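I am writing to request your help with a piece of structural work I have in hand. Here, with my thanks, is the record as I have it:
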Amino acid sequence: MITPGYPPAIGGIETHVYQLSKQIQNEDLELHVLWLNGSDHEPVQSPTDPDVTNGNIQRTEDAPPITVQNYHHIKRAIDEVDPDLVHAHSLWYSYAMAPLLLRPSALKFVVTNHSSSFLRNYYSDSALTNLKLRFAGRWPDICIAPSRELQQTTGDIASAPVTWIPNGVNVDEFSPDAETTSVSHDIEQLTEDSFVVLTTRRFEPKNGMRHLVKSIPHTAEDIYFVMIGDGSNHAELKQWVEEQGLSHRVSMPGSVPHDEIAAYYQLADVSVLPSLKEAISISGLESMASGTPLIGTRVGGIPELIDHGENGLLVQPRSPEEIAEAINRLHDNPREVKEMGTKARAKVVDSFSWDAVAERTIEVYKSVL
């Protein structure tokens, strides 16, 4: 399994690969994970985790992983492990895999196409970008897409079949009744009567955090916002909050350890996904599994999670006004919050557990071997 992200790094792909890899390894499946990482992080490693190698490559933040460095790391790992199948968690790894797939072997190649950068490139008007995508799409034996939008768009450029397998969530770890540690950041302003809005997103343009922050002045004064995550827009938006005199209603602690996130969902009354691009959001699944109703934008896979008015609310992207209206609605209707939270939890347990995701992924492996 080849991945650009793995814990302790925080993010959707990191969580997906970690949870999936723990679920699929068994006596019939020997798993090795190659983490092509651009930092000095050491991977999370315990007796129940798969074998993880940190490639520790160096690259600029937004560069797709198609470098010569990737090829050498992947080739070395394949020569050492001699796998039957390689499962990559980015379509861009096709570039590094292509020379290896031309060798006379029975090596099979599966790709999960998570990336919002893929969608950005897919919707580009550049003929060269389209050509690059189609070249990348000719190498997998089968593709996995975690949202219907990604299934459709990947199918447009891939030579192989594309199957839909959504992201998953640990429904025992994220539960209204789960035992959790206390939150690590002292949120002094919170009172027993506070209505808490949570978001766990990196402060990057695609995640729409700017629009959530700009919604705050339009919400009731007793609503408190907890915004977990760091990123390129964090300092700017924190300064804006301070300039608007809103600091007494907002906590922006940066990143927190993933094993503390469940405690924040239990603390919250509602969570928000203000995304501009999104697959099936893992943070959205974690919120719903915790019984915390979700407000999300009508983009990507979010409408596949939220049944508007039933287990959450949908709003238009880039609309601070609609976000604020949805937050105020739930603030004014505690009974609706409780009912939506119960239905959100039920939907996730039925359709998005990691057991179900792992089982379907292994079926994909069997179909190409």
Q: What stands out?
A: The longest strand covers residues 195-200. Residues 211 and 319 are 6 Å apart (CA to CA). The domain at 195-351 is CATH 3.40.50.2000 (Rossmann fold). DSSP finds 14 helices and 13 strands in the chain.
